[in-house]
Design a protein that fits this description.
With 483 residues, this protein is an alpha/beta fold. Helices cover 43% and strands 12% of the residues. It has helices at 10-21, 33-40, 51-60, 70-76, 97-109, 126-140, 161-166, 179-192, 207-238, 242-250, 271-284, 290-302, 305-314, 341-351, 364-374, 391-395, 415-421, 436-441, 454-458, and strands spanning 2-6, 25-29, 64-67, 79-82, 114-118, 147-151, 171-174, 202-205, 322-326, 355-359, 385-387, 400-403, 426-429, 445-447. It binds uridine-5'-diphosphate-xylopyranose. Uridine-5'-diphosphate-xylopyranose (UDX) binds at residues 154-158, 218, 221, 225, 259-261, 263, 266-268, 270-271, 330-331. It is an enzyme of class 1 (oxidoreductase).
Length: 483
């Protein structure tokens, strides 16, 4: 089949590449010409395991093209996926301007039937807005052409996007029960046929339910995380280990093991934005969602939990202190820094006068850019932030190691070398990746999230006195801006 994908972000690029890999002819459109040039030159705008190879192969074999020509994109295929960004607007609602601009572009150029498929995560009711935008464009040029707007939300995770796309748990298709809707459904069923060989994964429903399903899934997962984070903080206070508790409850199949990891709060481009947007929709409809409001509040507070452990050890003024940070991306397998906990934590450390040496296997460049933006009001503090090529380099002479992303390469460090590198033997683990006993045996003081920290919290460890002079010193720490 021929397919057009509008938007070459995470969702669009992965969808386009994977559909081409299945043998379809795919036309990827983006208004960002620099991105199109990069893709046409064999470059990659994002880090996603396996994607580069698939793109290279399918471009080479002529099934995948990148272009910024909207007329050609519309003419190319009956199926037009809209996979552009829906960033939050000032008050947290999903900003639909790019989705509606894509719809208008289709409306302006279409000559025959189109199945317009919303793949971006969009609030309930967006398909109707997309249809209205297309109708307006058709009316403006006096055209009367049949089309349908369908909803086909994407559930892929960054870092495993290709795998998730190729082996979906379910394919949600929202269509209207109209002749045009049925026509769109037939096309989409044909497109997704290869995924249903073993068993039927397609769930067909009305458009509004499909739009809602995506938000419900992300809200449920975010709720599990905030729930576990809240319990972890209680575990710290009562002397229980949340990791053992996680295993104890996860073995119940009604609960399951996934998404029960306590940490530094959920980040990324989806959960924070989607939970906020759903809360927004709820209050606009006079039906505030109390549980989700709490999920958001708990997540905000969770970003501070590691910092509170730093403050408990070193006080709030950190001038002369130096911290090693392992992991910058919001999760492993990606270089995405959107809502990454590392940003607010490093920002707070720098504002309090500390120096930071950071390592990430892929996200250092993105992190440097993100933090330069976050610290735009005090750019001189960036001089106290260094990115190092090896994890152990970061730990050299540091007052503590702070682990913020659970990259595989951090999971089995040489603990003796780590102990020797650190100035004070303190490891603050925001991802609970280490074994308590192994850390203790190596002479390291280990503070995880909810890991039976009672004794350690009561009895502060002896930290080394400040001896290192900072490049930028401050009498008073700059106000710490973590909410
Ligand atoms: C998520 C959804 O999983 C995906 O279905 C949807 O399409 C987009 O949003 P993604 O944002 O790529 O995908 O990341 P995910 O792996 O779900 O993690 C989200 C955040 O939750 C990360 O910050 C992660 O560290 C955190 N998390 C996840 C936890 O803190 N604990 C867990 O147990 C799981």
């Amino acid at each position: 089949m021929n397919v057009t994908i509008i938007g070459t972000g995470y969702v669009g690029l992965v969808t386009g590449a994977c559909l081409a890999e299945l043998g379809n002819n795919v036309f990827c459109l983006d208004v960002d010409q620099a991105k199109i040039h990069l893709l046409n030159a064999g470059g990659m705008p994002i880090h996603e395991p396996g994607l580069e190879e698939i793109i290279a192969r399918n471009v080479e074999e002529g099934r995948l093209v990148f272009s910024s020509d909207p007329a050609a994109a519309t003419a190319f295929a009956d199926v037009q996926f809209i996979a552009v960004g829906t960033p939050p607007d000032e008050d947290g609602a999903a900003d639909l301007q790019y989705v509606l601009a894509a719809a208008r572009s289709i409306g302006r150029h279409m000559q025959g039937f189109k199945a317009v498929v919303d793949k971006s995560t969009v609030p309930v009711g967006t398909a109707e807005k997309v249809a209205a935008a297309i109708r307006e464009e058709l009316a403006a040029r006096g055209a009367d052409i049949e089309f349908a707007v369908a909803s086909n939300p994407e559930f892929l995770k960054e870092g495993a996007a290709v795998e998730d796309f190729m082996r979906p748990d379910r394919i949600v298709l929202g269509v209207d029960e109209t002749p045009a809707g049925e026509r769109a459904l037939a096309l989409l069923r044909e497109l997704y046929r290869p995924f249903n060989r073993n068993h039927e994964r397609t769930r067909v429903m009305d458009v509004r339910s499909a739009e809602f399903t995506k938000y419900a899934a992300n809200a449920m997962l975010a709720t599990r995380i905030s729930f576990m984070n809240e319990l972890a903080n209680l575990a710290d206070r009562v002397g229980a280990d949340i990791e053992l508790v996680r295993q104890g409850i996860g073995s119940d199949p009604r609960i399951g093991y996934s998404f029960l990891y306590a940490g530094t709060g959920y980040g990324g481009s989806c959960f924070p934005k989607d939970v906020d947007a759903l809360c927004r929709t709820a209050s606009e409809n006079g039906h505030g969602l109390q549980i989700l409001d709490a999920v958001q509040r708990v997540n905000q507070a969770q970003k501070k939990v590691l910092l509170e452990k730093v403050w408990a050890q070193f006080g709030r003024r950190l001038a002369g202190r130096s911290f090693a940070v392992w992991g910058l991306a919001f999760k492993p397998g990606t270089d995405d820094m959107r809502e990454a906990p590392s940003r607010s934590i490093i920002e707070a450390l720098l504002r309090a006068g500390a120096t930071v040496r950071a390592h990430d296997p892929v996200a250092q460049e993105q992190a440097a850019r993100a933090l330069a933006g976050d610290l735009a009001d005090h750019p001189e503090l960036l001089r106290n932030l260094t990115f190092v090529p090896k994890p152990l380099d970061a730990a050299q002479g540091a007052d503590a190691l702070i682990v913020l992303t659970e990259w595989k390469s951090y999971k089995s460090p040489n603990l003796r070398a780590l102990r020797e590198a650190l100035r004070s033997p303190l490891v603050l683990d925001g991802r609970n990746i280490y074994d308590l006993h192994a850390m203790a045996a190596a002479g390291l003081t280990y503070l995880g999230i909810g890991r039976n920290n009672l004794a350690l919290l009561k009895e502060q460890m002896q930290v080394a006195p400040i001896t290192v002079a900072n490049e930028v010193t401050r009498e008073e720490p700059i106000e710490v801006l973590v909410e």
